[in-house]
Design brief:
Blueprint (H helix, E strand, L loop, with lengths): L3 H17 L5 E10 L9 E5 L5 E8 L6 E6 L5 E5 L6 E6 L6 E9 L10 E9 L12 E2 L1 E2 L6 E4 L3 E2 L3 E8 L4 E5 L2 E7 L7 E6 L6 E2 L16 E5 L5 E7 L3 E7 L7 E8 L3 E9 L10 E8 L3 E8 L14 E2 L13 E2 L3 E3 L4 E8 L2 E8 L10 E5 L9 E10 L5 E7 L5 E6 L5 E2 L3 E2 L7 E9 L5 E8 L15 H4 L3 E10 L7 E6 L6 E2 L8 H5 L10 E4 L5 E7 L8 E11 L5 E3 L7 E2 L24 E7 L5 E8 L13 E13 L5 E13 L5 E6 L1 E4 L5 E5 L4 E2 L1 E5 L2 E7 L11 E12 L7 E5 L3 E4 L10
Parallel strand pairs: 9-30, 10-34, 11-39
Antiparallel strand pairs: 1-8, 2-7, 3-6, 3-8, 4-5, 4-7, 12-43, 13-43, 14-15, 15-16, 16-17, 18-19, 19-20, 20-21, 22-23, 23-24, 24-25, 26-28, 27-28, 28-29, 29-30, 31-32, 32-33, 33-35, 36-37, 37-38, 38-39, 38-40, 41-42, 42-43, 43-44, 45-46, 46-47, 47-55, 48-49, 48-56, 49-50, 50-53, 51-52, 54-55, ...
Length: 783
């Protein structure tokens, strides 16, 4: 029977033969072993590389297989050239270069930052060097971007005004939300989990009323999927969607009719261990489709990073555009760089550069490729290193970010794993030189996570993240899944910093919260799939996103996990007032009670192969009002287009009218929560409605993994129908749990069809959301 060292040696040799060919001569090999602590790395292990050798292959594993590690490689000068962490043990490094300098290299094993590892803390490993040919498979290295300008930042309080949270989906939970905004609508996508094989797209025409892009309430295109997603649109109105299926392949889909139908290539890039793909669109220099290109970035575990391309779609009969892909690199099939965790791919329309930011040890590595108009292949990429992070840790938590402004200045941003601070650095010369890093966050945002960036007008960049005033690391806090009460001591909010004069010596950073209440409690587990084994909380997955709308305002899509279910509930918050990142100014009204809703937007289905269905007047919301006719009684009045018929939408047996809100309360396990409550009316088969109220339940895929929110008929309420108005009264004390505090957050009216309380509902219409302060409206009759 093999021992562990023998097994690792065989594994490394097999890896060499598979990746570089059986004809390679193995000039040097050996084993190593050592120990680490939960917070410190092991010793350096030397690897001697002789003249003429071209490859180094290393494998290391902990004696406790569940312990996650990082594996690092340093060149003879002491510079770190590879930092490999694929959230597992063993870890492998394959480093190849036709110009591999001879000398003594060193490898080091480190604990995953913030991870929970168990004794014993020992590991074993093996290395192999060879002179295998690297033509076509060489992994390029990086050049250091020289450090240029020293900055003197000034910090001020942000003064932007943001909306209450808009409910994007009142039923489905979804991690890692991303948004894209084009000329005719707002698009959002995110995964539901590979066990479900489902990912979702939501679309809104006005940014206020969102609907899932599916006539059956599931994914928009054929499965499989359920992993990482992205969605973009081009200037022809074509929509591109990508989904990952269980780290096996990438499926890409195209819609030429604004989401009604989709065509899919389920194996657009089929390669074992592909992961975290991103889109970027080059709309060319003309208004035609011919020069449009969609770029797709991804990494292959233990191999490297890649950027592929596809022509923009030319219509529903085009079998290639957005569906068939090829490497965009002039050095294909070689990877662009060593494997790493990389943020969203960006295309700079000013300098026409593709930019791909990856975490590489203590710095951000940026792959840059200049794209000529209409160019899709043969792109010459090079890698540059942004400055080392001042916090003394690696770049992580989880993805670094890159953005460009309207002048083509580049901004690299990251969170330091050691001090959990947010930093950025800028380049005014396409990455050749970089400023000294600037710390972005300030109190009360002490510990930070999930960074995202967008550029604006010249000299403006916006960074957003999640922050808590507690010190520590996101992995170190109590997990809601293990200690619900303890986790609520750690309150996370959404933060944003608008940075002006950002590419100068004196940037001005305006930080503020964009969420008005906590949106998460306790731990944010960064150990990927290992979070499940340790009871870690990975409910929100790995990030949230934001973008700029047509007026230049900021629009965040994010998860709020503070309900009694601790599910990844999906919301949007939009900028209402203040200077926009694009250089304009907004003065949008703050939503208040009562609120009006647009007429004629209650189609069912909203998206299908035959287009949108007819508007349903009985489910067409025109307004929502909240009041308290007496102390302790809550009243909602929902105005509809017409209530002459109460018939349910096609395929459902019940019509439902509902007003929901979140309020500070007690969770199902006795912990603090912002519970979801509701009042409503229900009609079976078009008969006279009954009136009800309650607090939501959730259908889980496993304990503590909430997937579908339900609004069951829990308690009877008092109600009536007067003309086109449905009025419902209920004592606050009858909602099942106490309503604490004075504010009902994101009050929203919804109409839908359902067959049962636990059905997947037909989402027909929704009003804009507003906050209601208890006692602020006491008058008004029931109708």
């Amino acid at each position: 029977m093999f021992g562990k060292v023998q097994f690792l040696g065989a594994l490394a040799a097999i890896f060499v033969l598979l990746s570089l060919g059986a004809g390679a001569a193995l000039a040097n090999s050996g084993t190593f072993s050592g120990s680490i602590t939960p917070t410190t790395c092991g010793p350096m292990h030397p690897i001697n590389v002789a003249a003429g050798e071209t490859t180094i292959d290393i494998t290391a594993a902990m004696t406790v297989s569940a312990n996650d590690i990082k594996l690092e490689l340093y060149d003879p000068t002491g510079k770190q050239i590879v930092d490999k962490d694929t959230l597992t043990s063993p870890e492998t490094i394959h480093y190849a270069s036709a110009n591999l300098a001879p000398g003594t290299y060193n490898t080091q094993v480190c604990p995953f930052a913030g991870g929970v590892i168990a004794e014993p803390y020992t590991y074993t490993g093996t290395f192999v060097t060879s002179n295998a040919p690297v033509v076509g498979v060489e992994t390029p290295g990086s050049t250091d971007g020289g450090t240029g300008t020293t900055t003197a930042p000034r910090y001020v309080q942000g003064k932007l005004v943001f909306s209450p949270a808009t409910v994007i989906d009142a039923q489905r939970t979804e991690g890692e939300p991303l948004n894209f905004i084009d000329g005719t609508g707002f698009w959002e996508s995110g995964p539901w989990g590979t066990t479900t094989q489902n990912s979702f797209i939501h679309r809104s025409t006005d940014g206020l009323d969102w609907h899932v892009d599916s006539p059956v309430g599931l994914r928009p295109d054929p499965g499989p999927g359920g992993g990482d997603t992205d969605v973009v649109a081009d200037d022809q109105g074509n929509i591109y969607f990508i989904d990952l299926e269980a780290l096996v392949n990438l499926g890409t889909s195209v819609s030429n009719d604004r989401g009604n139908t989709w065509r899919k290539n389920p194996a657009a890039v089929q390669n074992a261990a592909v992961d975290r793909q991103w889109y970027a669109v080059d709309n060319g220099t003309t208004g035609a489709a011919d020069d449009n290109t969609v770029f797709m970035a991804f990494h292959t575990l233990a191999v490297g990073t890649f950027i592929y391309s596809s022509p923009g779609s030319k219509g529903s009969s085009d079998p290639v555009g957005g569906l068939v892909w090829q490497s965009s690199s002039a050095k294909s099939p070689a990877p662009l760089a060593n494997d790493a965790s990389c943020g969203q791919l960006r295309f700079d329309r000013v300098k026409r550069n593709l930019l791909y930011a990856c975490g590489e040890g203590n710095h951000v590595r940026i792959t840059i490729g200049h794209v000529n108009p209409g160019q899709r292949t043969g792109i010459e990429y090079h890698n540059v290193n942004a400055p080392a992070s001042p916090g003394g840790g690696d770049v992580g938590h989880l993805f670094p970010s890159v953005a460009t402004d309207a002048a083509g200045n580049i901004y690299a941003a990251w969170v330091d794993e050691n001090d959990s601070n947010v930093y950025y650095s800028y380049s005014t010369d396409e990455g050749a030189t970089w400023s000294t890093p600037v710390k972005v966050n300030g109190a009360p945002s002490v510990t930070n996570e999930f960074l995202w960036a967008q550029g604006g007008d010249p000299g403006t960049v916006v960074l957003a993240w999640l922050g808590t005033e507690a010190s520590g690391t996101p992995d170190s806090y109590p997990s809601w899944k293990v200690d619900p009460q303890g986790s609520t001591a750690i309150k996370w909010f959404g933060y944003v910093s608008t940075i002006t004069a950002a590419a100068s010596k004196k940037p001005v950073l305006a930080q503020q919260r964009f969420t008005e209440k906590p949106m998460h409690y306790g731990q944010i587990c960064n150990q990927g799939t290992l979070c499940v084994a340790t009871g870690g909380d990975r409910t929100m997955a790995d990030f949230f996103g934001f973008n700029l709308d047509r007026e230049g305002g900021i629009r965040f899509v994010y998860n709020d996990t503070t309900s009694q279910h601790h599910g990844a509930h999906l919301y949007e918050i939009r900028q209402l007032k203040g200077r926009t990142p694009a250089g304009g100014s907004l003065n949008r009204p703050v939503p208040t009670n009562p609120i009006a809703d647009a007429a004629g937007d209650a189609q069912w289905p909203h998206y299908s192969a035959t287009g949108a269905g007819a508007n349903l007047p009985q489910l067409d919301l025109r307004g929502l009002a909240v009041s308290q006719p007496s102390a302790g009684i809550l009243r909602v009045k929902m105005t509809l287009g017409s209530l002459e018929s109460l018939a349910p939408p096609t395929g459902k047996t019940r019509s439902t009218w509902l007003a929901r809100f979140q309020a500070l309360s007690v969770g199902d396990k006795g912990e603090e929560s912002y519970r979801i409550f509701y009042l409503g009316a229900d009609s079976v088969g078009g008969t006279a409605p009954s009136f009800f109220a309650g607090t939501t339940t959730c259908t889980d895929t496993d304990p503590g993994n909430c997937k579908i929110i339900n609004y069951p008929v829990q308690v009877a309420a008092t109600g009536k129908v007067c003309g086109n108005v449905i009025s419902v009264d209920v004592p606050l004390a009858a909602l099942g749990k106490p309503v604490q505090g004075t504010t009902l957050f994101n009050v929203t009216a919804l109409t839908f069809g359902r067959n049962a309380d636990t059905d997947i509902y037909a989402d027909v219409d929704a009003t804009p959301s507003f906050d209601y302060v208890l006692g602020s409206s006491t008058g008004g009759g029931a109708c």
